[in-house]
Amino acid sequence: MARVLLLIPSRTYRTHDFMEAARALSIDVVVASPHRPALAPLMDGRHLRLDFEKIDASLDSIVSFASEHPLDAVVAVDDGGTHLASAAGEALGLPHNPVAAVEVASNKALARAAFRRAGLRTPAFQVVSIDTDPMTLASQPSYPCVVKPLDLSGSQGVIRVDDEASLPAVFERAAAIVRSCTGDARSHLLIEDFIPGREVAVEGLLRGGRLEVLAIFDKPDPLDGPFFEETIYVTPSRLEGELQRSIEQTTASATAALGLVEGPIHAELRLSDSEMTVLEVAPRSIGGLCARTLRFGAGTSLEELILRHAAGLRMPEHQLEAGAAGVMMLPIRKAGILEAVNGREAARRVPEIEDLVLTIAPGERLVPLPEGDRYLGFLFARGREPSTVEAALRDAYSRLSVVIDD
Questions:
Q1: How many Å apart are CA 189 and CA 181, to the nearest integer?
Q2: At 324, phi and psi to the nearest 5?
Q3: What is the mean pLDDT of the chain?
Q4: Backbone φ and ψ of 243, nearest 5°
Q5: H or E stretch including 405?
Q6: Residue 42: what pLDDT?
Q7: How far apart are CA 84 and CA 96, in angstroms?
Q8: What's the rounded Cα separation, in Å, for the pair 164 and 155?
Q9: Rounded CA separation 255/266 (Å)
Q10: How far apart are CA 78 and CA 284, in angstroms?
Q11: How far is CA 275 from CA 114, 246, 247, 270, in A?
């Protein structure tokens, strides 16, 4: 039986789906997390408590564990564990991404520089200390521009600036968000050109340095700011075939530019006229619960493919299932205490709606972007055509009423 160490951060939506995938594959799972998880009593000693940001100490614990309980793979469930997963793979002689490649991919400035060296289009940018007076920047940005942290995800701290007069307030707001976090890259901000256009997401799997594109998602809602809250993802893409092939080729080139070679990747690109701009290639799979839109072959989940590849198990035929699927990440529009989400049954009755999952419970505080890093929940739809899936998601969302106590 294959044994896999899952690196599960303290805040992730994906624990259940990875555990279900492991169960379906009869994989022996060891869980590593910063805190004792609710399932720890059921793990029969197969739990490591690790601080993912203290790489050396955590690596020692993993190597010590593996000396008595050999591991076939170390898999990061979300962003927080990618550095440790690559270091553990290297130490244990398992297939892994190079540590340096993960470090570059996880830092937006380093990634931008790598893309540029590879001849890929990427926004012009500068890196600025959060303690800088934005009016004294040596190189004034062109407008509109975007201010963002170097390594946060989910659009947290990302804000558009339209003119010089707006820059100081936006800069200080983004700097305050960075100061509230911890991490080596969290003392600087990236200021980059705003790139207009449609945005797409690419889900892929690297196998020995070769990228296999699993899905291209359209993002039909414009992402023009001032904040960049993602809402609807729909696959398969409705873009014409030649453009999709160009997206795949560009994503493969961007992945190679970073030096990534093994495991899942999630990429974001912008399409403007005839030009294609690489925004991000992350060495992990799609976030939140969005992976539930993807089914391969005879109902195989994305998590099953990731675990099969990591553990060296046989990979079945895994073409994306016929038809269309989509997800809507339910946005948080207003700060306050969540009282209720009404209209859920009406939303579930919309044709093609498959599920509605709320991930914030009544009584919890809601924090919208750019300070927030969570969604209210996820709506899922499945149907014959991308257009009807998108319409179903919008219809179902219109039937929800979120009650918030100020």
A1: 13
A2: -130, 155
A3: 93
A4: -65, -40
A5: strand 401-405
A6: 47
A7: 11
A8: 22
A9: 10
A10: 6
A11: 18, 10, 11, 8
The per-residue pLDDT for 41 is 46
Contact present, 101 and 283 (Cβ < 8 Å): yes
For the stretch 171-214, pLDDT in tens is 999 999 999 886 555 789 999 999 999 999 999 999 999 999 99
Q: Provide the residue count of the chain.
A: 406
pLDDT at position 43 is 56
Does position 240 have pLDDT exceeding 70, yes or no?
yes
What are the CA-CA distances from residue 342 to residues 25, 330, 397, 403 (Å)? 38, 13, 11, 8
> Rounded to a whole number, what is the largest CA-CA distance in the chain?
62
**The two three-digit tokens of residue 317, written as one number:** 């035929």
The string of pLDDT tens digits covering residues 248-284 is 999 999 999 999 999 999 999 999 877 899 999 999 9
CB crowding 19-46: b at 16 or more within 10 Å, else e: bebbeebebebbbbbbeebeeeeeeeeb
Place of tokens 């690596």: 59
Residue 140, pLDDT > 80, answer: no
Confidence category of residue 406, pLDDT binned at 50, 70, 90: confident
**Token pair listed for 167:** 């820059």
Are residues 5 and 78 in contact, defined by beta-carbon separation less than 8 angstroms? no
Please tell me the distance from the alpha carbon of residue 170 to that of residue 17, in angstroms, as a whole number.
37
- Distance between CA atoms of residues 258 and 99, nearest Å: 11
Bond into 362 cis (ω within 30): no
Beta strand pairing call for 145-149 and 159-161: antiparallel
Q: Which of 263, 266, 267, 203 is nearest to 235 (CA)?
A: 203
